[in-house]
């Protein structure tokens, strides 16, 4: 039932420098990559290599020093509802209920009637398995639940692309595995493109169609690793020899990159 999504995102020769008190910091050196519509891309790299910077550039939250970024052939000039973001830290509004958090963006734009917006919220609450929590406040939810709501909120805006910056990084290992499976299930039922940042090798392989491995700072996409495992994927995949072999290969590479910054 997957619909086509032709929206291609092209990053071409992008350089990003930050002006800091101690001078210019080059976060990204000339880097290029193409993300196809409907693809699940994981962006893997050591801490500080520029993953968040690249993701924020794709999301239009950060300017570039050189190069170009186009979405659907059009240069990106700022944030857009076509590219929704989910961050690691919990970004829900504590004074709004779960349902109000999900409809927040739609309410701002007065998109549809309030009844229609509620229906949208409930559709996504159902998808993330939290229908019974519509009237609860964020403080009444666990970390995993909050991130599920953040995902539902991003999806409710119906973006073509979901940009996720270590969204499961603060969760315990068991919850994290469940979240990975839930995200795959959601993605498999949609036409969304996902770009998912992580420094966890197994997470990158388990989720991605392709893993973009970044070099140490200044970062660039240095290896594009296709993930050959069929979908739908279940957690047992992680125990197979093929998975373990790929995991070892990427772990070695990541270790080498990390050691350059150590
Ligand atoms: N707003 C900023 N001002 C100055 N330096 C920054 C800024 N954002 C990121 N950097 C620097 O750019 C590099 C890459 O950061 P980041 O993209 O956050 O890496 P990652 O997400 O891979 O850990 C780091 O050296 C960081 O200190
Ligand atoms: Mg980061």
How are the secondary structure elements laid out?
Blueprint: E1 9-20, E2 23-35, E3 40-44, H1 51-58, E4 66-71, E5 74-75, E6 83-86, H2 98-108, H3 114-127, H4 143-156, E7 161-165, H5 173-188, E8 193-198, H6 201-207, E9 210-214, E10 221-226, H7 241-261
Parallel strand pairs: 3-8, 3-9, 6-7, 7-8
Antiparallel strand pairs: 1-2, 1-4, 4-5, 9-10
Short description:
With about 260 residues, the protein is of the alpha/beta class. The protein has seven helices and ten strands.
For this entry, give a set of tags.
262 residues, AAA+_ATPase, Rossmann fold, 7 helices, four-stranded antiparallel β-sheet, hydrolase, six-stranded mixed β-sheet, alpha/beta, ABC_transporter-like_ATP-bd, single chain, 35% helix, binds adenosine-5'-diphosphate
Task: Describe this structure as you would to a colleague.
Keywords: ATP-binding, Hydrolase, Nucleotide-binding, Transport. Its EC number is 3.6.3.36. GO terms for molecular function: ATP binding; ATP hydrolysis activity. The protein is α/β, with parallel strands linked by helices and about 260 residues long. The chain has a domain at about 10-90 and about 170-260: P-loop containing nucleotide triphosphate hydrolases (Rossmann fold), CATH 3.40.50. It is built from seven helices and ten strands. The protein has helices at about 50-60, 100-110, 115-125, 145-155, 175-190, 200-205, 240-260; strands at about 10-20, 25-35, 40-45, 65-70, 75, 85, 160-165, 195-200, 210-215, 220-225. The strands form two sheets. The chain has a six-stranded mixed beta sheet with strand order 6-7-8-3-9-10, with helices on both faces. Helix 2 (about 100-110) packs across helix 3 (about 115-125), helix 2 (about 100-110) runs parallel beside helix 4 (about 145-155) and helix 3 (about 115-125) crosses helix 4. The radius of gyration is 18 Å and the shape is globular. The model has no long low-confidence stretch (mean pLDDT about 95). Bound molecules: adenosine-5'-diphosphate and magnesium ion. Magnesium ion binds next to helix 1.
């Amino acid at each position: 039932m997957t619909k086509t999504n032709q929206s291609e995102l092209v990053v071409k020769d992008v350089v990003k420098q930050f002006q800091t008190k101690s001078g210019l910091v080059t976060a990204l050196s000339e880097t290029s990559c193409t993300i196809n519509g409907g693809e699940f891309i994981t962006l893997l790299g050591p801490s500080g290599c520029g993953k968040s910077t690249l993701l924020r550039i794709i999301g239009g939250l950060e300017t570039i020093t050189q190069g170009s970024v186009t979405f659907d052939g059009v240069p990106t000039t700022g944030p857009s509802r076509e590219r929704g973001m989910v961050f690691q830290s919990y970004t829900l509004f504590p004074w709004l209920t779960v349902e109000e958090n999900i409809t927040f963006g739609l309410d701002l734009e007065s998109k549809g009637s309030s009844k229609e917006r509620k229906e949208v919220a409930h559709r996504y609450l159902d998808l993330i398995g939290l229908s019974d929590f519509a009237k609860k406040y964020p403080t009444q939810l666990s970390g995993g639940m909050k991130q599920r709501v953040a995902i539902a909120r991003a999806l409710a805006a119906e973006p073509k692309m979901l940009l996720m910056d270590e969204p499961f990084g603060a969760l315990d290992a068991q919850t994290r595995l469940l979240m990975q499976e839930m995200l795959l299930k959601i993605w498999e039922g949609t036409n969304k493109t996902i770009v998912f940042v992580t420094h966890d090798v197994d997470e990158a392989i388990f989720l991605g169609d392709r893993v973009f491995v970044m070099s140490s700072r200044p970062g660039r996409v240095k290896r594009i690793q296709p993930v050959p495992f069929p979908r739908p994927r279940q957690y047992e995949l992680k125990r197979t020899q093929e998975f373990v072999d790929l995991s070892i290969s990427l772990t070695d590479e990541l270790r080498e990159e990390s050691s350059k910054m150590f």
